[in-house]
Amino acid sequence: MLEQNVPSTVQVGGRSSRLAVVQSEHIAALIDSTFPQVTNIPITKFKTLGDNVLNKPLYTFGGKAVWTKELEDKLDNKELDIVVHSLKDVPTTLPDGFILGGITKRVDPSDCVCFKAGSKYKTLKDLPEGAVVGTSSIRRSAQLRRIYPTLKFESVRGNLLTRLGKLDDPESPFSCIILASAGLIRQELAHRISYTLNKDEMYHAVGQGALGLEIRKNDEIMQYVCDMICDYETTICCLAERSLMRSLEGGCSVPIGVESYFNHETKELTLHGCVISVDGQTSVESSITKKIEDVHMDSTEVGILLSAELCKHGAKEILESIRFEDIKQ
Fold first, then answer.
1. Residue 40 in contact with residue 57, Cβ under 8 Å?
2. Exposure winner among 15, 63, 162, 220, fewest CB in 10 A?
3. Which domains, ranges and CATH numbers included, belong to the chain?
4. Which residues are catalytic?
């Protein structure tokens, strides 16, 4: 019955950056290939506060809501049916009237290092003392400070091409920048990845590499559309990751890192988590493995259990000690 009620037009929207447009086009293509009765999928592009304010770190002016508020307004007044987000930008608690309708198949969730064009360096450990690494993520800089205390970390914002341009500028102070691998892969810029970071160096962000589809609450038709194009494994992993962050009350740029793996044979999810102080001096890590029988209930429980385990070892104290006004990055 629901399939018969899917309209011929589904309005998809997202941010106006090149990456966001690629992501919206990907969702439109999934809808097109899944629902032959949908003949019109207009893609609308909007600039959000996060796109307009490029000279400040995100934690100084609103956190994750800077990427979502304007888009939710369009969703609310029915200019859009589905909003496409990078899932790592979506708050773990959405405003009344909106829900996360689905999560599509994840691209490589790792962080990566991009060296300046023509650089002689191959890894971070090759960099000399005082070399400047560009990243606007406290999570990234905190983890790397732990391993590479002699490196300097400075904020770099803008879309991917802007950041790569800043890196390659001969006058730029940056020896390299840290980016999400997925963004480069989606924009056919994977050749700029010098190497990817595994969890021994860098736990990735919650939801990184996945796309989240936001819809109006109680919109059964769009929920059905989302259900048909979402990915089972990615959903399990990301629901657990987001539950961990929600349980720890972590917001944008807070130094919480994760890595998750779902074993299809045993139906077990393993979630690793890390909470680290901004200076990299104090950290706690732990992991939880649980069999998944009910996707939403069990995945959420994994995040809650891991949060409790991390808190036993001091995660809350680390997060509560963060004073963003003291951060020089």
1. no
2. 220
3. 1-105+209-230 (3.40.190.10), 111-197 (3.40.190.10), 231-319 (3.30.160.40)
4. 89
